[in-house]
Amino acid sequence: MKVAVTGASGLVGTALVPALHAAGHTVLTLTRGKAENPGEVGWDIERGTIDAASLEGVDAIVHLAGESIGERWSEGARERILRSRVDGTGLVARTAASLDSRPALVQASAVGFYGPDDPTVTESSPQGQGFAAEVAAAWEEAAAPAREAGLRWAALRKAPIIAKEGGAIAQMLTPFKLGLGGRVGSGRQWWSWVSLEDAVRAYLHVLESELDGAVNVAAGALPNAEFVKALGRATHRPTIFPLPSLAVKTMFGQMGEEMLLGGQRVSSERLVSSGFTFRHETLDDALAAALS
User: Fold this and answer.
1) What is the pTM of this model?
2) Residue 117 — very low, low, confident or very high, per pLDDT cuts 50/70/90?
């Protein structure tokens, strides 16, 4: 296939682009501003512009671009996070709908859609409460122009990714390597996860299949207390320094309450039913692969 990718310089994008090449696909990457190299397509979210002519003929667009949600949610940060997802997705969806090649649109989303308090969720579970859920729902809704044009659309609701190159787990590694890790809050909240390799493989699987709609991407879930024990085993350090709930709320505000003190036990039943298998089915395996 001929596949265009936004957010190609991000955590998933830097792994997905070479994987697409390795699978025999032709890849175009969308770059902010003017395209200067072969295989690049210019776009500008703020101005609402994109080089649609260069995208004509693509079979699919993988839309990964969006500001990280892993920061304290000040009013300014909330606005940037929401706008980066809604405006970018709307621009990509409208452009996809205008192309004669009628590409599939496969976009990033997150398990935050389900909110911080539901322990067991499938793709049929409703939208939850909180800012993360609001962002994920608006992110997916912004793709309406593509759906209304009859294009195949899929939203990959990914769990936090296990990788040393970036993401939430990478931020946790430093204190754990120093022997300062421990459970967060009560330790009873469920934390779902997926390895970077499996996240990339899920994108390839969805691109090469007929899956559409919401698709959960989580290899497993553990109570936080068990999750941090696995991190301790991977870093060969004790996990005896808990992070109390009050400290989480003080340091991270609502982001900490939703993303660290909350969680979900996510089922990837649609992905697995379509024939996908996770290579890293246990957290120990995923951490070993990430840290090797």
Assistant:
1) 0.95
2) confident
